[in-house]
Every structure is written in C-alpha cells, then in structure tokens.
Amino acid sequence: MLILGIETATWLGSIALVTESEVIAEYTLNIRRTHSERLMGMIARLLSDTDVALTDLDGIAVSIGPGSFTGLRIGLSTAKGLCFANDLPLTPVPTLEAMASRLCFARYPVCPLLDARKQEVYAAIYDVSDGTVREALAPGTISIEHLLARISRPTIFSGDGITIFRDPIREKLGDRAFFAPSDAAHPDAAAVARLGLSAFRKGEHAELFGLEPIYLRRSEAEIKKQGPKDAGRRAASRDHSD
Question: Checking DSSP bridges between strand 134-143 and strand 120-127, what pairing results, if any?
C-alpha cells in the first residue's frame, strides 16, 4: 500500500509518502507561513520528486486534531479535495496518538502536549510499551496543573507544550519526568501515514463529507458569538450535569 500523510495541526507542517515497509519521502517546514500558502506546493513537489501520481495512492491519512483550528481545517479540506477528485479513501488520525506512536516501545507512558493557550494544553497519555498505541488517558483540554496532578509514575512528555511548561513539569515530577528529543517531539506526517495505513489494512476509512476536525474546545469566534449570558447559562448547566 502507498499512503500520503498530511500533518497540519501546528505551525510545523509536514507531508509524507509511506509504504508498509518504509518512508519513501517526507517534507517538513517549520516556518511562520500559513499552510494554505505551502501545503499544495509541498504535495506537488513530493509527488514529482518521487515520480508518484495521486492515482497511484491507495489512500490519504490526515491529522484530525486537536491542534490549530485553522491548520486542521486546511489540512482536512485539502485531503478531502484530493480524495474526492481522485476517488481515494480518507482516514483521520488523532494528532496526539500519532505523536505518541513516534516513541513506540518506550518503557514509560507517553504524554503528548500541544499548547491550547490560556495556560492549558491538549493532552493525552498512551501506553506504547508493546509497540502499539493504547490510550491510558483520553485526549482533552486541561490546565498543566490538573494534568500533572493525575500523573504519579515516570512519564515521557513530547510536543510544543514541553517548551512552555518544562519547568512546572520538572518541579512537580522531578526525576519522573522525561522529555522526548526534539526530532521526535513534534507532530509528524510519517507517523500519521503509518497509522492511516494500519487503518486502511483493516478496511477502515471515513465518510468523506461528514468528517470534521477534533477541536476539543470552541474557537474564540464561537465564544464571542455565544455571548457572556448564554455562556454563563451553559457553564452552569454543565456544572449541574457533572
């Protein structure tokens, strides 16, 4: 199988072409330009350099979130367009799960952290010790303090959240905190493609037009549109139901 992976959950965008046995090519750009400016150009160059046509692909895997709202929308809309135009299946890959998969066979649990702003992170915890990615703490938006309060054993942290919150993590966990090396700490299209390939082998793929990013929180525009009174009523309702 030949799978194209697309990763746009953060500023560090990447695409990769992967088979069941190897990564054929991967392009990564960590520059402050929007994915809309560079993504299609990156895909065109990767396919040209590898002498692969879109019709040669067996499917496309896309990072589905959480992460940058704009980045996720661009990545998903691009993947949908390519799949629709070339009659290809599409599979979504959770961003944090793909990040954890980069550290497969690690002895300790892996906790990917992506900056969610407002002193919060998108986070989850995975057991990868046997080479598979098993969820130990479901993805969510959480303050770093509340997250660390739930961690008692040695844990490996990755993602841009470790740049922002390295000090509080060390203060709370001490020598139980480990940090992934920089080259394995960020979202990665090859990891997305590999997990996507595994899903395709099982016959799993998404309904193209119903697929939406996993945001885990509302955007600022939605919060402002909702208004403070409505927000207060909904918050009170949630508190009561919890």
Answer: antiparallel
> What's the token pair of residue 74?
């661009």
One domain for residues 15 and 49: yes
With H, G, I as helix, E, B as strand and everything else as coil, classify residue 24: strand
* Secondary structure in 3-state letters for 132-196: CCEEEEEEEEEEHHHHHHCCCCCEEEECCHHHHHHHHHHHHHHHHEEECCHHHCCCCHHHHHHHH
Region 11-19: mean pLDDT is 94
Q: Which residue has the higher pLDDT, 49 or 35?
A: 49
Sign of CA dihedral 67, 71, 73, 76: negative
Inside any domain, residue 74: yes
The per-residue pLDDT for 35 is: 74
* Residue 64, phi then psi, degrees to nearest 5: -105, -5
Q: What share of the chain is helix, strand, coil (3-state, %, to 5)?
A: 45, 25, 30
Both 82 and 25 in a single domain? yes
Q: How confident is the model at residue 229 (pLDDT cuts 50, 70, 90)?
A: very low
Cα distance between residue 165 and residue 152, in whole Å = 17
At residue 133, φ and ψ (nearest 5 deg) are -110, 110
Residue 242 in any domain: the answer is: no
Q: To the nearest whole number, what is the mean pLDDT of the chain?
A: 90
